[in-house]
């Protein structure tokens, strides 16, 4: 597999580049093409898709952009064209949206429905929070994981979903999961006592 080529962009249009490297010309599908200029030397990272229906070569300016493309097309329901359309918005912007769990922003991208947006976030948020070194995103992912663990434990203890959801909105997230559970139980108990007083 060829990972990258160094050469010159001979021609470009809205989606495609003609890229010449060592005397060989390549037709490359390239997202966000305004970043590169024709008649200049570039290093492009490549990804080839070849099957019974198509033979396409995708190019990327950054290695992380290529990684994100591969991550996207490995998700169920996202093909190369949809992944290309996502990256056409700017891969760093998309990586940041994924890291921060911005489902509502992803839905604004053409051809991205709520199901696909939620799938992208659920499968890739943890990885890309680390890949982008986004401290806020990493903290958000950690808190989300802790909340999920606390919620499952409270369910096993027999509390109702409405009680759990209400209590977990009030707990301090800057603590371990055991402390979160204890605090949630305290809020549930206080709420139960308050409701008994109102009904008395």
Question: Can you characterise this structure?
Answer:
The protein has 200 residues and is an alpha+beta fold. The chain has 3 domains: 57 residues, OB fold (Dihydrolipoamide Acetyltransferase, E2P), CATH 2.40.50.140; 70 residues, Orthogonal Bundle (DNA polymerase, domain 1), CATH 1.10.150.20; 58 residues. Strands 3-2-1-4-5 form a 5-stranded antiparallel β-sheet, covered by helices on one side. Helix 3 packs across helix 5.
What would the average pLDDT be, to the nearest integer?
A: 85
What string, H for helix and E for strand, traces the elements in order? EEEEEHHHHHHHH
CATH architecture of the largest domain: Orthogonal Bundle
Largest sheet: 5 strands, antiparallel
Low-pLDDT sequence parts? 196-200
Give the count of structural domains.
3
CATH superfamily of the largest domain: 5' to 3' exonuclease, C-terminal subdomain
Structural class call reads alpha+beta
CATH-derived topology of the largest domain: DNA polymerase, domain 1
Query: How far is the N terminus from the C terminus?
Result: 74 Å
How many DSSP helices?
8
Indicate the multimeric state: single chain
How much of the sequence lies in strands comes to: 15-25%
Number of strands: 5
Side by side, the strands of the main sheet go: 3-2-1-4-5
CATH top level label of the largest domain: Mainly Alpha
- Principal-axes geometry comes out as elongated
Assign a percent range to the helix content.
40-55%
Q: In angstroms, what is the radius of gyration?
A: 24 Å
Main location: cytoplasm
Protein name: Holliday junction branch migration complex subunit RuvA
GO molecular function, one term: hydrolase activity
Pfam families: HHH_5, RuvA_C, RuvA_N
